[in-house]
Amino acid sequence: MPTHPHAAGSINLRPAAREDIPEILALIKELAAYEREPEAAVATAAQLERALFGHPANDGKGAGVAECVMGEIVGEDGEARVEGMALFFHNFSTWTGKPGIYLEDLFVRPAARGHGLGKALLLHLAKLAVERGCGRLEWAVLDWNAPAIGFYKSLGAVGLDEWTINRVTGATLEKLASESRH
User: Fold this and answer.
1) pLDDT tens, 161-178?
2) pTM, rounded to two decimals
3) pLDDT tens, 65-108?
4) Taking Cα atoms as reference points, which of 83, 91, 82, 84 lies closest to residue 140?
5) Local structure of 54: helix, strand or coil
6) Which fold has domain 11-178?
7) Which position among 110, 115, 152, 182 bears the catalytic label?
8) Which residues, at least 6 apart from 174, have a Cβ–Cβ distance to it below 8 Å?
């Protein structure tokens, strides 16, 4: 990832550290509010820490089930401030026989948009996908989010209109699990 730049407006990308958990949670809550579901963001710091870094006794290298890249923009004072993130994990395609990267959350604070941070984060994930031998980089976007859809299309992303996302959560998930014989 780029080293820490000092020129105002410069972008810095870096892997998330445990110390970033409060900032990541704040970004998640801001994203949930932007997506019109602020009450749905209920993850705790402990859950996020375990997902990203595994057990706190670990050294934090590859121990979690997800990864996060922090996006910083250097201000006029020369200080880098977190203005966005990309939180992702690996999935697997049986058809290609390769892993993929699934981008769970890409978020840039509204005041920081237009500086290239979102694009830098996506380009970084594309590079990671290629370096890791992945066959895909994919994500979901809400159908009403025209600015995001336009942004993704400008980068060459293709919407998969023929696929429908399915989800089971909460009581329904518990009910299904209780019906399992194994």
Assistant:
1) 898 889 899 999 999 999
2) 0.89
3) 999 999 999 998 999 999 999 999 999 999 999 999 999 999 99
4) 91
5) coil
6) Aminopeptidase (3.40.630)
7) 152
8) none
